[in-house]
Design brief:
Layout (H helix, E strand, L loop, with lengths): L1 E9 L15 E5 L3 E5 L6 H9 L5 E7 L2 E2 L5 H11 E4 L11 H7 L5 H17 L15 H13 L5 E5 L7 H18 L2 E6 L10 E4 L1
Parallel strand pairs: 3-8, 3-9, 6-7, 7-8
Antiparallel strand pairs: 1-2, 1-4, 4-5
Length: 215
């Protein structure tokens, strides 16, 4: 699956060009590859992710997915894209604070009863790997932000996807936890031959992306 940015210019802020531009350029993102977007606050990292989620349309230019413009997407197209092709970890996480960590993960998946057992095994394995298995039944509002980030990562990985979009997913994790989470993300995406787009304020030393964009 290919994503193409054709001369995109957000209307909400002044863009600037760099050696690896995203704005006002032609950019191609391909499945199976990792792209890192590095920028200071307010430079458009979240805007970039929000455009691909269909949450923002205040831009000039054109974004195409497999040659189809997002401007031509109908509600069913967005439902298909978000439900089966794209998975997100937003900066604000978008968890339900009154539900437990596990309920948040399960709720985002449309699964048959037969698959719930497999999902539970996957959730518990990832939670164990990320050091939060003992927090799965804890109501989210009582978790630290770093623990919430790990819940959001598990939720994103438990969904079907061809693209994984991560907006500053490690901002509240120490180096060891961030490295561990990244290794799990890469392993899961590789199994699905999925593309990864990750944003950050600074380069992560443990990430070796195929391409870096500096906004």
């Amino acid at each position: 699956m290919e994503i193409q940015f054709n001369q995109i210019k957000p209307r909400s802020f002044q863009v600037k060009k760099s050696d690896a531009p995203v704005w006002e350029s032609d950019v191609f993102l391909n499945s199976g590859k990792t792209y890192q977007i590095i920028a200071s606050s307010g430079s458009g990292k979240t805007t970039f992710i929000s455009m691909l989620a269909g949450l923002r349309g205040d831009y000039e230019g054109n974004i195409l997915i497999n040659g189809i413009s997002l401007s031509a997407f109908k509600p069913r197209d967005w439902s298909e894209w978000r439900g089966n092709s794209a998975s997100f970890v937003f900066q604000d996480l978008r968890l339900f604070p009154e539900l437990s960590a596990k309920e948040n993960i399960v709720l985002s998946n449309v699964l048959s009863t037969e698959k719930i057992g497999d999902l539970t095994d996957q959730i518990e394995l990832m939670a164990e790997q990320l050091g939060i298995r003992h927090k799965l039944n804890t109501v989210v509002k009582f978790l630290s932000f770093g623990q919430m980030q790990r819940v959001a990562i598990i939720r994103a990985l438990c969904r079907p996807y061809e693209w994984l979009f991560l907006d500053e997913p490690f901002s509240h994790l120490d180096h060891q936890n961030a490295t561990n989470a990244w290794n799990i993300i890469v392993e899961d995406a590789k199994k699905k031959n999925a593309g990864i787009v990750i944003t950050s304020l600074d380069p992560y030393p443990f990430i070796q992306p195929d391409q870096i964009f500096v906004l």
